[in-house]
Design brief:
Layout: H1 2-36, H2 43-47, E1 50-58, E2 61-68, H3 85-101, H4 106-109, H5 118-121, H6 125-150, H7 157-178, H8 181-216, H9 223-248, H10 253-256, H11 261-283, H12 290-306, H13 318-346, H14 372-377, H15 379-387, H16 401-408
Helix pairs in contact: 1-3, 1-9, 1-11, 3-8, 6-7, 6-8, 7-8, 7-11, 8-9, 9-11, 11-12, 15-16
Length: about 425
């Protein structure tokens, strides 16, 4: 029952997280589109403080949106719409999920016993959980300091963008060396998501509140509050697509289980930012088809990095092939029995219709290896996960290096 309640909590938290994230991202993308689709106002409207306007049709109706940078020519009332709870709910539910699945099972999901850094391989579960949490806080503090120091007046955003990209590449590299692959992808995404939500909490909303207070008091708002909020909001929109990928990457072991995992992360982050840039510019009437093409090129690079090595089947003269046919068949049968025995001993405690491993009420990713046919169907995934030492998780079943090599040499007929 305890495992079931944990799974139920996982489901409900995940559902809340997805709903809140869709609402937050959808609203954010809408306002970026609105901001970049504004038409210049007339001279008379400019004198009234109007910055831009947009006419739109949607849902059977027509809309006329206005944007004022300073004090609008009308009083602000209590119906003023604020956008922040979607952001906070997304982060809080995401951190709840992260705690439930990773921090409370850190020795299982975070500790990377195969880390090239000896101190990281020797971490306890509690130590790994503390370091993972520190990544979120440290990532935000480092990002915030870059913004404060490189572009405090919002006039050096090009240099700031490059510095932020390098920071995220560093987070991707270091996290992939310390933590297990899937956790490293999630933590890198969580660092970016923390920066996004912290931007709302510490900069965007406080600046807007100061502007509203000034207007209601009859004072002129500080233009820096608007500029800072705009800067952080723009950063958030470029983080969006990379974060979405990193949060769903646990479904694709060929990414996080690859020896170039950190580089795959970086390529996806850059690709997502470039694709988002294309749409941001398109809203303002500027078409830059080279941007999505470059993003696609980076994704092609991911495909090349993550591709499994080709299987080369040695050829032999016909006479030799005929004479070896019987022994080859026997070796294949023996090999399959050996493979099945290893998987029975090292994988079946989790990947079974009825897992015996504590904490699982269903097989991870729906993979059940009770049946030899299921093993053959998923042979490529098994080989990849075992070769990268991602599986078994935390090597709880003590798979030996010899067993990993046996699985890695599994014949070409079962590699797909």
């Amino acid at each position: 029952m305890e495992n079931y309640l944990l799974e139920l909590g996982n489901l409900l938290l995940r559902w809340l997280h997805v709903i809140a994230a869709i609402a937050w991202i959808g609203e954010s993308i809408y306002f970026v589109m609105l901001d970049n689709s504004l038409s210049p106002p007339s001279a008379a409207d400019t004198r009234r403080g109007l910055h831009g306007e947009m006419f739109a049709v949607h849902g059977g109706g027509f809309y006329h949106n206005h944007k004022y940078l300073g004090q609008p020519p009308f009083p602000l009332d209590d119906k003023l719409h604020w956008s922040f709870w979607k952001s906070y709910t997304t982060w809080l539910s995401g951190f709840g999920l992260f705690s439930l699945l990773y921090l409370f099972n850190a020795s299982f999901y975070l500790v990377n016993s195969g880390s090239p850094w000896a101190w990281a391989a020797a971490l306890s579960g509690g130590q790994a959980a503390v370091i993972a949490t520190a990544f979120l806080l440290g990532g935000w503090l480092a990002y915030d300091q870059l913004c404060r120091r490189i572009s405090p007046d919002m006039n050096h955003d090009g240099a700031l963008s490059l510095a932020v990209a390098l920071l995220m590449a560093l987070v991707a590299y270091v996290s992939s060396q310390i933590f297990q692959g899937r956790a490293a992808f999630l933590i890198t995404g969580a660092v970016m998501a923390t920066c996004m939500s912290a931007n709302v909490l510490f900069w965007i909303i406080p600046g807007q509140r100061r502007m509203v207070r000034a207007i209601r008091a009859g004072d002129k708002p500080n233009p820096l509050d608007g500029l800072r909020g705009k800067q952080r909001s723009v950063h958030n929109t470029y983080f969006t697509l990379p974060v979405v990928f990193l949060m769903i990457s646990n479904h694709y072991s060929f990414t996080y289980g690859n020896r170039h995992a950190w580089l795959i992360m970086v390529l996806f982050i850059l690709s997502g930012a470039l694709i988002r840039q294309y749409f941001v510019l398109r809203h303002s009437g500027r078409k830059r088809p080279l941007l999505p093409a470059l993003g696609g090129l980076l994704l092609a690079g991911v495909g090349l990095l993550a591709a499994p090595p080709p299987t080369i089947t040695p050829t032999a003269p016909q006479a030799a092939a005929d004479s070896l046919a019987a022994s080859t068949a026997q070796k294949t049968a023996d090999s399959l029995r050996q493979i099945h025995a290893i998987i029975q001993n090292r994988c079946l405690s989790c990947h079974s219709a009825t897992p015996s491993q504590a904490g699982f009420v269903a097989p991870p990713a729906g993979l059940k290896f009770d049946d030899a046919q299921e093993i053959l169907i998923n042979a490529h995934r098994i080989k990849q996960a075992v070769a990268s030492k991602y599986m078994p998780l935390a090597n709880l079943t003590q798979m030996t290096q010899e067993e990993r090599e046996i699985l890695a040499k599994w014949g070409p007929t079962s590699s797909r």
